[in-house]
Amino acid sequence: MSKGACLVVGVGDGLGGAISKAFAAEGYAVCMTRRPRNLPELERIAGEIRDAGGEAHAFGVDAREEDEVVALFERIEREIGPLEVVVFNIGANVRFGIRETTARVFTKVWEMACFAGFLAGREAAKHMVPRGRGTILFTGATASVRGREGFSAFAAAKHGLRAVAQSMARELGPQGIHVAHIVVDGGIDGVFIRQNRPNADELLAEDAILRPEEIAQSYVAVHRQGRSAWTHELDVRPWKESW
């Protein structure tokens, strides 16, 4: 029997896929989203979950489009089950020097990493509050708490998402909804890090970069917490911080 539905917004081969697989292993009917053009890749991940005995559904959705997000939540609630967990996991990690950061780039990054998180959080709250239970998890980054050179757009968006999460936690906690913000402070093994770090295999062997499947277990652990000791912000980082 399914424990209910878990929605992961922003799923690829890295952290999003690992989170989806972790909650599927816990018995949730996992719903995964990515932009429509990436739906074939998403279907492949869903197939891997099904092959392992889990339940998975893939949706091609632009998380920045309000109508699409509203329709997605309503469809999951209607056709799959009550949403018990919602994870917002869109990254939008791009690097531009401040002089090269156009208004379009800044706005697009904010839409992906902050505005889309607001939409997902709002719709999750609409469905969870009447039931008095549920978990909403936001993926943060080093940029959520510290802006680096070349990342003004990304840092602004991630700082904004963190503020959304803080406000939601104070508003929704007394109504039985656990809202948490998870700061992933370090490089995550995956396509991005391998494109930018030629020694990625060496770093991974030394546990100097984060393994997606191990980060995902932290999401499950936060969801399992009893309400007398809820975590709002969790910081995960490799044991070797300087890489």
Could you characterize what this model shows?
With 243 residues, this protein is of the alpha/beta class. The protein has a single domain (5-236), classed as Rossmann fold. Helices cover 45% and strands 17% of the residues. It has helices at residues 15-25, 39-51, 66-79, 103-128, 152-172, 191-196, 200-205, 212-224, and strands spanning 5-9, 29-34, 55-60, 83-88, 135-141, 178-184, 233-236. It has a seven-stranded parallel β-sheet, with helices on both faces. The radius of gyration is 17 Å and the shape is globular.
Largest sheet: 7 strands, parallel
Question: How many structural domains does the protein architecture include?
Answer: 1
**What is the CATH T-level topology?**
Rossmann fold
Low-confidence stretches: none
Q: End-to-end span in angstroms?
A: 44 Å
Strand order of the largest sheet: 3-2-1-4-5-6-7
Order of helices and strands: EHEHEHEHEHEHHHE
Which class do the helix and strand fractions yield? alpha/beta
Keywords:
7 strands, 243 residues, seven-stranded parallel beta sheet, alpha/beta, 8 helices, Rossmann fold
Element layout with pairings:
Elements (H helix, E strand, L loop, with lengths): L4 E5 L5 H11 L3 E6 L4 H13 L3 E6 L5 H14 L3 E6 L14 H26 L6 E7 L10 H21 L5 E7 L6 H6 L3 H6 L6 H13 L8 E4 L7
Parallel strand pairs: 1-2, 1-4, 2-3, 4-5, 5-6, 6-7
Helix pairs in contact: 1-8, 3-4, 4-5
Summarize it.
The chain has helices spanning 15-25, 39-51, 66-79, 103-128, 152-172, 191-196, 200-205, 212-224; strands spanning 5-9, 29-34, 55-60, 83-88, 135-141, 178-184, 233-236. The protein is an alpha/beta fold.
